[in-house]
Structure formats: structure tokens, C-alpha cells
Amino acid sequence: MTKKLNTKGMLIETASRLFRMRGYDGVGLNDILKESGIPKGSLYHYFPEGKEGLAVEAIRHTKGVVIGFIEEVFERTEDPIKAVQNHICELVEVMRDEKEPVGFPIGAIASEKHSTSEPIRKACHSAFEEWKETYSRKFIRAGYSEKQAEDLGIIILAVIEGGILLSLTAKSDKPLRVIAEQIPMLLAKKSG
Amino acid sequence: MTKKLNTKGMLIETASRLFRMRGYDGVGLNDILKESGIPKGSLYHYFPEGKEGLAVEAIRHTKGVVIGFIEEVFERTEDPIKAVQNHICELVEVMRDEKEPVGFPIGAIASEKHSTSEPIRKACHSAFEEWKETYSRKFIRAGYSEKQAEDLGIIILAVIEGGILLSLTAKSDKPLRVIAEQIPMLLAKKSG
DNA sequence: ATTATATTAGACCGGTCGGTTTAATACGTG
DNA sequence: CACGTATTAAACCGACCGGTCTAATATAAT
Question: Which of A22, A116, A155 is closest, CB to CB, to B116?
Fold first, then answer.
């Protein structure tokens, strides 16, 4: 009972990591197999739907990890704007660490496959939705209106996803650092 | 002299369009060839470096098209904040048109290949840089400080790239519409 | 011990990938 | 026209792709 979960879980974790880094088509089944040391027969035993099924579960896994990452910071910081700022700062830290590369968590796979695989598109959409709601909830708890919180959630998610992409492409944490720095200015309530 | 440019140009345009939609590994050379009706020999005549070289030129082409798209709107609108808002609104319009799909202009290819191909990563980085500077210039001309303009350029680029990704994944223009709607609130100068 | 089941192992498949090669053909220029 | 170059054409290559299949092997229950 323990070995089973380990094998399947190892497959999901390895796939999640590789997909984050190189997207869907950039990762072969054999890459995942070699890196996890698991034979091909096992993969098709646990994932009879093959690569696509494995990818859907890998996306679900990444979604959960990221939610945990967000909530851990949010629990420590009451003010929602400061919380978002801290969240982005921690993201910068994590991305600096080259041992466990973060990549573009869902973005790489989403941008590749959104038009060619509905199951994958839906899985990515679900991840984005839940991340957005995790942000929104923080603002609702702080007294923002539902519409305000929803809109801010979308904007925060967009600017973070975009910032990660810019930082990866520039090989520099500057874009994300600038975004973190400017978050209070961006989100500050002004007239009303 | 005319046919040459047409053949090479057709190759670049077709590659640009397909890469935007499905990323790098998602597009085979044969897809590009079939769609443009050009034989493989010609491709390797014009692009002896093969797929990677073609991709670099396709990215350069996309970069130029997007700059033209931005500047056309910017010329019509003096106020930089309104100009950015109009730009995003036009982006929503263009993406609604399914005849000439926009995709995730550089994002798809950047997120896939940033870690595995330096030439492609650099080409994408160059595109992002120039887009950012196109935004920044608008704010400098309106009297913003250099640092302010630079930071705003990064943020606008990030939120747009992220918004496109969210809209494509959601199959909805809502994320981009919300971003456009909130742009004045985000960029409004407050204290200072 | 026996049986049923879950899992591992990896050879194998057809198809497609990016890329190479060679020969034919169009074309510009003297 | 003749000649050298630019271009087209497609057969072909080895490598790798995702996926299938069958047999061996653990594992658990009776």
C-alpha cells in the first residue's frame, strides 16, 4: 500500500517538475521515466490514458502545491496588500534556488496546449481559478467588496504570471522584484 | 527578386502564426511547410540553421508586428493611461476574431524554450524589452521620471502577458476586460 | 500452498520528428 | 545562346515519439 502511492506519486511529482520547466511537448515520456527510474509498464498501469492523463494529474498536483505556498504566506500577514507583496518576494527567493527549479508553473503547459487539448486546458483553467480565488478571499476577509476582490484577484494573478514569464526569459529576477516593489502603489485604494 | 522575398517572408509569417498558437515543439516543420506550400529544400536554403533559425526570425517578425500595433494606438491617444487602456481593449477585439488567431504572441515559445535554447531565449527577451520600452517611452513623453516609466513599462507588459494567458486558458475575454477596466485605477498616481 | 491480482519489465510498433542529400529546374547575366 | 547561380523538389535518414503488448514477478488472501 505504501509502495503503490510512492510509485504513482513519484511519477506525478517528476512529471510536474519537468512540465513546469519545459512545457508539454518538450518533455518525453522517456524523460519522466528515466528521471524517476520507473518502467514504462507502470506508467500505463497507473495512467491508462497515457501522457495526457498524467499531465492532468501533474497540473492538479502543482495547483495544490502553489495554493499551499500562497496560504502559508497569507496566514502570516494580515494586511492583504502586504501579504501579496510578501508572496511575490518569496516567489523571487524560491526562483533563485536552482536546485528545485520552479519554472512557469502552469503557464508553459497552458500556453502550449490550450488550443489542442481540452482536458489539459480545463485542468490549467481550474488551477488559475483556484489561485485567483485564494487571492480574492484574502481581500474579502479584509472587507473589500466581492467585485473588488474578484477583480484584484485577476489582476494579481495576471501580473504574477506575466512577471514570472518575464523573469525567466530575462534570466533575471528584476521584473518580479519591480512588481513586488510596486504592489502597494498599484493596489492602494485611491478615490473611493 | 520578388519571389525570393515572398517565399522567405511566407515561411516567416506562417511560422510566426503557428508558433504563436501552439508553441515551438507543438509545431512541426512539416506543418509550416504544408500550410505555406513551400518545399523543404527551400526552407533549408533560406534557413540553413533549420527550425531554430526560422523560429528566431519568426520571433523578430512578431516583435515588429506588435510594436506597430502598440504605436498605432499610442499615436491616437495622448494620455498614457488612456492609451494603455485602449491598447488592451483593442487586444480584446483582435483576439475575438478567430480568423487570424493571435495566440500568446511570444509567451508560448518563451515559456517552453527559455531553458533549452539560448538563441530563442534571447530573441524573446529582445521582444519583451522593446515592447516594454515602447510602453515606457509613452510615459516619459508625458513627463514621468525615467524610473517611474521603466517600472510602469514592466508592470504593463507583465499584466498584459498574464492577462492574455488567462484569457486563452479560460476561453474568455473576461480577464483582459477586467484588466483594461482597472488600468486607470492601477496606474493612477496617488501620493506624489 | 494456491490462486487471483497488482505491478514491473522492456521489447516492440508505426508514425513523425528535424535534418541531409542529390538531382533537376528556373533564372539572371554575359 | 550559354553559363553559373539560386531555387525547388522529394526521396531518404537515424532518432525519438507516444503507445501497446506479453511475460515475468511480487503481493495478498484463502
Answer: A22
Q: Does residue A139 contact residue A153 with C-beta atoms inside 8 Å?
A: yes
| Count of CB atoms situated within 10 Å of the CB of B50 | 11
Q: What is the pLDDT of residues B36-85, one digit of tens each?
A: 888 898 999 999 999 999 999 999 999 999 999 999 999 999 999 999 99
The Cα–Cα gap between B5 and A178 comes to 42
Measured CA to CA, the distance from residue A46 to residue A31 in angstroms comes to 17
Q: Reply yes or no on domain B52-186 having CATH 1.10.357.10.
A: yes
Q: Where are the domains of chain B?
A: 52-186
Find all residues with CB under 8 Å of B118, minimum gap 6, and list them: none
- In A, which residues are within 8 Å of B157 by CB distance? 162, 166
DSSP A120-188: HHHHHHHHHHHHHHHHHHHHHHTT--HHHHHHHHHHHHHHHHHHHHHHHHHTSSHHHHHHHHHHHHHH-
* Strand C within 7 A of B2 CB: no
Q: Count each helix (H run) and each strand (E run) in chain A, helices first.
A: 9, 0
Tens-of-pLDDT digits for all 192 residues of chain A?
A: 344 458 899 999 999 999 999 999 999 999 999 999 898 989 999 999 999 999 999 999 999 999 999 999 999 999 999 999 999 999 999 998 876 778 888 999 999 999 999 999 999 999 999 999 999 999 999 999 999 999 999 999 999 999 999 999 999 999 999 999 999 999 987 644
Per-residue buried b or exposed e for B79-117, using 16+ beta carbons within 10 Å of the residue's own CB: ebbebbbbbbbebbeebeeeeeebbbbbbbbbbbbbbeb
